[in-house]
C-alpha cells in the first residue's frame, strides 16, 4: 500500500517506507538506545540480567528511520520533530527537563539561549535543535518573551 | 395523588402556561444560552474581527499572512508561517476558491491526499473560510474521508476519587477488555501520579496487550513518568490560539515543540491539546472567533511536529455550546485537524450538557463519520470518580453506546463484554497489582481490596486505604531506580506470565517507535496500525472503513441479545382439553347470540395471550360478559386468516345477532358488526398486553349491548405507550405462529365445555 500512496503523492519509494512497521520488518537490526539489540530484550534476559531504562529506550538511529518514514508519507513536520528527538536521545533525563524549562517564556536571557544552542551543538551534536533554540531566542527577543530583569 | 387543573392554577393567580412551566423544568433548560459577543471572543465560527485570508511569499519567506505584515507578526504567526505552511503549494492553495475546496471535501471522487495537499498550504483564515461554507452533514462527509487512520478507535479515562490502586487497575483492565485503544489517568493529588500510572499500565496489560496509557500531570512531571517507562503517550500538551493565552499557559510554540521532541526522544507518543473556547475563557480571544483561534492552534500543532491533537473544545465545551452554532463549530475544528493530517481525538469528553438528547445528538457528529478517537476521554468509570471533570459519557452509558453501534452498524470503539469476563479481568488486574506492590515493598493491597475492586462500580465500593503511605511509596518509586523491568520480573515471579510478557512487549515496542507515526495504536496482538499502514482511503460507498466481518459480529453480539426462537415459550402449551371442534360453522338463527371468533392457533398451538392470560380464562371472561346481558355466546374458529379484523369480520357474518368478538391468539380483540367493512369496527382493542380478564368481560358485555341496539360506553383501556416497545418482537413471533396454523378451511363451530356463573 505504501507504494501506491507514494505514487499518489508523486514521491519516490524510499527504502524505509516499505519497512513499516519496523518492529515487524527490521526486528533483527533494531537496537535500543543502550545498543542492546531488540532481539536480545527477551523475557528470559529480563528475568536473569540487569536491564536498564536505556535497554527499552528508542535509539537515535531508529528515530531517524521513523523520521524518514514520516517524511516519505507526507508528514514533514513530524519528520523534523523526530529528527530533533533523535538528537535529544543524547541528552540526559535531568538535562532534558532543564532545557525544556529554559525554553518556557520569561525564563532566560538572549545570551543564555545562545549558550544553550552552543551546548546543544558542541556537547550533544544537536544541530537541528540548536538552530531551533536560536530561532526561538530571536522571536522571544522581538516579542518580549525573554526573562525580564528587575529594574 | 392530587392534581391541579388549569382552573385551579388560574384561581391561585398562576397565569403562566402549564406547558412552558414543564419545559422550564427540563434538563435542557438547566444550561446557559447567550447571544454572540465578538468583542469578548464569544462567537463560534465567524467574528467580524477575524482576519481575511491572504499570503505573500518573497524569496521563500512568508512576508504577509492573513492581512498582517511579517513585521507585525506575533510569535504564533511567526511559528505558523515558518513551520506549518507548505510554501511549495501555498500559492496554489490560497488561489483555489474556498468553496471549491469545501466541495472537494464532500466530493467522493476527490481522495484524501488531494485535499491534504492543498490544506498544507492554507493559512488559518483560509482554513476557516473553507469550513464556513459547509453544513454539519457536509462536514461529517469530510471528516469521514479526512480522518487520518482508516480504523476508528476510542480512548478511556480511568481515575478514581480515592486514588485506590486496585480499583484503577481493575477499571483499566475492564476498559482494555472493552476495546479502548488508549487509557488516560490523572490524579487528585499530584504525588500519586507514579503509582496511578503504574496501576493503569499493569491493569490494561493484564487484560489486553498493546493498550497505550498515559497520566495527565504537569508537563515536566509527565515527561518524567514517561522516561521511567510508566506511560507510553502524553496528550496534555496544551496550545492556544493567541499569544497571550499561550504565554499564560506558560509555554511558547518553541517550548511546546521542544517538549514534543523530548517525549519522542524517549519513545513516547504525543498529541497536543487545543479546542474552542479556551482563549475566551483565559481572557485573550483578541475579538476573534473560536474557530479562527483554533485554526491557529492546529497549525502550531502541525508546525511543532505533533502527530495529532485532541480538540473538540475538550474541557471548555460548555462555552461553545452556550453560543449559536457551537456544536457545528466543534465539528469544524475536528475536520480542520483531520484535513491537516493530524490524528484527532475529537472531544466528547467533559460534561457538555444535562440533556441526554443533546449529548447524543452532538456525539453523532463524530461517531457516525468516525474519528481517530471518538472521545478524547470516555469516562470508563462513573463520572463522580472522574478526576478530569469528564464524564459526558461514563461507565453507566456503556450499554447505550454499544446498542447505538449495533443500531447503526458503526464502530464507536467500544466492544460489548460479558459480566463474567469483565469481573475476571478486573480481579486478575487487581491481583497482578497486589503482587507487584508486595514485590516492590509498597503498602500492601489486601485480598479484600482485590475482591472489592473486582466487583466495584465506583470508589465508594472500596475499603479505606492509607493514602499517606501510598503517597510516600509513590515518592520513593519515582526517585528510586526501580524500572519497567523490575515490574516485569515481579509479575513473572508471581505467576502473571502473560501480563509480564505484555508489559515487556510495551518496552520492546518503544524501542521500535512505530507508534510515533500519525494516529498509531495497537490492534489486537500488538499489531501497530497508523496513517502509514492503515491510511484512510475513503472514496465513497464500498471504500474506506467498513464495519463488517469479525468486528461487526463482535459489536452486534451484545450480552442483552437473546435468541428469538424461544421467545414465545410462555405462550406455547398443551391444547385446551375442553375446547373441541364440532363441524363447519353455520350462520346462526338466534338474535340473542354473540359469536366469539378465535384465531387459527387459539387454545391449540398457543394457549396464552401476550399478556400471559390463559386462553381458557379469556374465553370464560368474554362469555361471562355476554351472559350478564342475557345473551349466549357461540365460539367459532376462523382458519383462513390470522388477522384480527378478518377474524371479527368472519365471526359477524356467522352471528345471529350480527355482532361478533374477534380474538387473536395473542389477545388482540375487536367487536365487529355484520355489514361493516373489515377494517371498520365497533370497538378495537389493539393494546393486547394491557387487557385484563375484567376488560374481556366488559368487551363481552358491550358486544351483547350492541346486539340489543344500545350505544354502550366504549370499554376503557389504559394506554401504555411502552407496550409495543417492550413486546414487539414477541408480537411478531406470536403472529407468525398463528399464521402457521392458517388453513384453506371454513370457520368451524367449537364446543367449549364451560357454564357461565351468572
UniProtKB/TrEMBL annotation, chain A:
InterPro entries membership: Ppandiol/glycerol_DeHydtase_su (IPR003207), Prodiol/glycerol_DeHase__sf_su (IPR036091)
Domain of life: Bacteria
Ranges of biased composition (kind: Basic and acidic residues): 1-11
Extent of the signal sequence: none
Spans traversing the lipid bilayer: none
One Pfam family it belongs to: Dehydratase_SU
Region described as Disordered: 1-21
Record-given protein name: Propanediol dehydratase small subunit PduE
Species this protein is from: Caldilineaceae bacterium SB0661_bin_32
From TrEMBL, chain B:
Superkingdom to which the source organism belongs: Bacteria
One MF term in the entry's GO annotations: hydro-lyase activity
Segments forming domain Diol/glycerol dehydratase large subunit: 17-565
InterPro entries linked to this entry: B12-dep_deHydtase_bsu, Cbl-dep_enz_cat, Dehydtase/Dehydtase_re, Diol/glycerol_deHase_lsu_sf, Diol/glycerol_deHydtase_lsu
Pfam family membership, one: Dehydratase_LU
NCBIfam families (alphabetical): PRK15444.1
Protein name: Propanediol/glycerol family dehydratase large subunit
Organism the protein comes from: Caldilineaceae bacterium SB0661_bin_32
Source organism phylogeny: Bacteria, Bacillati, Chloroflexota, Caldilineae, Caldilineales
Amino acid at each position: 500500500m505504501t507504494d501506491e500512496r507514494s505514487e499518489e503523492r508523486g514521491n519516490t519509494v524510499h527504502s524505509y517506507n516499505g519497512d513499516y512497521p519496523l518492529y515487524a520488518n527490521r526486528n533483527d537490526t533494531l537496537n535500543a538506545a543502550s545498543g542492546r539489540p531488540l532481539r536480545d530484550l527477551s523475557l528470559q534476559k529480563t528475568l536473569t540480567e540487569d536491564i536498564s531504562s536505556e535497554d527499552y529506550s528508542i535509539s537515535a538511529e531508529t528515530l531517524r528511520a521513523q523520521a524518514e518514514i514520516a517524511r516519505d508519507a507526507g508528514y514533514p513536520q513530524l519528520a523534523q520533530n523526530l529528527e530533533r528527538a533523535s538528537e535529544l536521545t543524547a541528552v540526559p533525563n535531568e538535562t532534558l527537563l532543564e532545557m525544556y524549562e529554559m525554553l518556557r517564556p520569561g525564563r532566560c536571557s538572549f545570551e543564555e539561549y545562545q549558550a544553550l544552542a552552543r551546548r546543544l551543538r558542541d556537547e550533544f551534536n544537536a544541530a537541528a535543535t540548536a538552530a531551533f533554540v536560536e530561532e526561538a531566542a530571536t522571536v522571544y527577543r522581538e516579542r518580549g518573551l525573554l526573562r525580564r530583569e528587575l529594574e | 395523588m392530587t392534581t391541579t387543573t388549569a382552573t385551579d392554577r388560574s384561581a391561585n393567580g398562576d397565569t403562566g402556561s402549564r406547558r412552558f412551566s414543564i419545559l422550564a423544568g427540563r434538563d435542557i433548560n438547566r444550561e446557559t444560552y447567550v447571544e454572540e459577543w465578538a468583542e469578548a471572543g464569544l462567537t463560534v465560527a465567524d467574528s467580524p474581527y477575524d482576519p481575511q485570508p491572504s499570503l505573500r511569499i518573497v524569496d521563500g519567506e512568508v512576508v504577509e499572512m492573513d492581512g498582517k505584515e511579517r513585521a507585525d507578526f506575533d510569535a504564533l504567526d511567526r511559528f505558523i508561517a515558518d513551520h506549518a505552511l507548505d510554501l511549495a503549494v501555498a500559492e496554489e492553495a490560497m488561489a483555489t476558491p474556498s468553496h471549491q475546496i469545501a466541495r472537494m471535501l464532500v466530493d467522493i471522487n476527490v481522495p484524501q491526499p488531494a485535499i491534504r495537499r492543498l490544506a498544507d498550504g492554507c493559512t488559518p483564515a483560509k482554513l476557516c473560510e473553507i469550513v464556513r461554507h459547509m453544513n454539519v452533514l457536509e462536514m461529517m462527509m469530510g471528516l469521514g474521508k479526512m480522518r487520518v487512520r482508516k480504523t476508528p478507535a476510542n480512548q478511556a479515562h480511568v481515575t478514581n476519587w480515592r486514588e485506590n490502586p486496585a480499583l484503577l487497575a481493575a477499571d483499566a483492565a475492564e476498559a482494555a477488555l472493552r476495546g479502548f485503544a488508549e487509557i488516560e489517568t490523572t490524579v487528585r493529588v499530584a504525588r500519586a501520579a507514579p503509582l496511578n500510572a503504574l496501576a493503569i499500565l499493569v491493569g490494561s496489560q493484564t487484560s489486553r496487550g498493546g493498550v497505550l496509557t498515559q497520566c495527565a500531570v504537569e508537563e515536566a512531571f509527565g515527561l518524567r513518568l514517561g522516561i521511567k517507562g510508566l506511560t507510553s503517550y502524553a496528550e496534555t500538551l496544551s496550545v492556544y490560539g493567541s499569544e497571550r493565552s499561550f504565554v499564560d499557559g506558560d509555554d511558547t510554540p518553541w517550548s511546546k515543540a521542544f517538549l514534543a521532541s523530548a517525549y519522542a526522544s524517549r519513545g513516547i507518543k504525543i498529541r497536543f491539546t487545543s479546542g474552542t473556547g479556551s482563549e475566551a475563557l483565559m481572557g485573550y480571544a483578541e475579538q476573534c472567533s473560536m474557530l479562527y483561534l483554533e485554526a491557529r492552534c492546529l497549525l502550531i500543532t502541525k508546525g511543532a511536529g505533533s502527530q495529532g491533537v485532541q480538540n473538540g473544545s475538550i474541557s471548555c465545551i460548555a462555552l461553545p455550546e452556550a453560543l449559536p452554532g457551537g456544536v457545528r463549530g466543534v465539528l469544524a475544528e475536528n475536520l480542520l485537524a483531520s484535513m491537516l493530517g493530524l490524528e484527532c481525538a475529537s472531544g466528547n469528553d467533559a460534561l457538555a450538557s444535562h440533556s441526554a438528547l443533546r449529548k447524543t445528538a452532538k456525539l453523532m457528529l463524530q461517531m457516525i463519520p468516525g474519528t481517530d478517537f471518538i472521545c478524547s476521554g470516555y469516562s470508563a468509570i462513573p463520572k463522580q470518580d472522574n478526576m478530569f471533570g469528564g464524564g459526558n459519557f461514563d461507565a453507566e452509558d456503556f450499554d447505550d453506546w454499544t446498542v447505538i453501534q449495533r443500531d447503526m452498524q458503526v464502530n464507536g470503539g467500544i466492544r460489548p463484554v460479558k459480566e463474567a469476563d469483565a469481573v475476571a479481568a478486573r480481579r486478575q488486574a487487581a491481583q497482578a497489582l497486589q503482587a507487584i506492590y508486595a514485590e516492590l515493598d509498597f503498602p500492601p493491597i489486601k485480598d479484600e481490596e482485590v475482591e472489592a475492586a473486582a466487583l466495584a462500580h465506583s470508589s465508594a465500593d472500596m475499603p479505606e486505604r492509607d493514602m499517606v503511605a501510598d503517597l510516600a511509596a509513590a515518592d520513593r518509586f519515582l526517585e528510586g531506580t526501580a524500572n519497567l523491568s523490575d515490574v516485569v520480573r515481579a509479575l513473572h515471579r508471581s505467576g502473571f506470565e502473560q501480563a509480564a510478557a505484555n508489559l515487556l512487549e510495551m518496552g520492546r515496542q518503544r524501542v521500535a517507535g512505530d507508534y510515533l507515526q500519525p494516529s498509531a495504536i495497537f490492534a489486537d496482538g500488538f499489531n501497530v496500525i497508523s496513517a502509514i499502514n492503515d491510511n484512510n482511503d475513503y472514496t465513497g460507498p464500498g471504500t474506506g472503513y467498513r464495519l463488517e466481518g469479525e468486528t461487526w459480529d463482535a459489536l452486534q453480539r451484545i450480552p442483552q441479545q437473546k435468541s428469538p426462537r424461544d421467545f414465545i415459550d410462555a405462550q406455547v402449551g398443551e391444547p385446551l382439553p375442553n375446547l373441541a371442534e364440532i363441524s363447519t360453522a353455520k350462520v346462526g338463527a338466534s338474535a340473542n347470540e354473540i359469536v366469539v371468533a378465535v384465531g387459527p392457533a387459539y387454545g391449540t398451538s398457543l394457549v396464552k395471550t401476550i399478556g400471559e392470560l390463559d386462553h381458557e380464562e379469556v374465553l370464560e371472561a368474554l362469555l361471562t360478559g355476554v351472559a350478564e346481558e342475557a345473551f349466549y355466546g357461540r365460539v367459532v374458529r376462523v382458519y383462513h386468516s390470522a388477522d384480527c379484523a378478518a377474524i371479527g369480520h368472519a365471526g359477524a357474518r356467522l352471528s345471529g345477532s350480527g355482532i361478533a368478538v374477534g380474538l387473536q391468539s395473542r389477545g388482540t380483540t375487536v367487536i365487529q358488526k355484520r355489514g361493516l367493512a373489515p377494517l371498520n369496527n365497533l370497538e378495537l382493542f389493539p393494546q393486547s398486553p394491557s387487557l385484563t380478564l375484567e376488560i374481556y368481560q366488559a368487551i363481552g358485555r358491550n358486544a351483547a349491548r350492541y346486539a340489543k341496539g344500545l350505544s354502550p360506553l366504549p370499554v376503557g383501556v389504559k394506554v401504555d405507550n411502552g407496550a409495543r416497545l417492550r413486546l414487539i418482537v414477541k408480537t411478531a413471533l406470536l403472529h407468525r405462529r398463528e399464521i402457521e396454523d392458517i388453513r384453506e378451511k371454513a370457520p368451524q363451530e367449537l364446543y367449549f365445555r364451560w357454564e357461565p356463573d351468572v
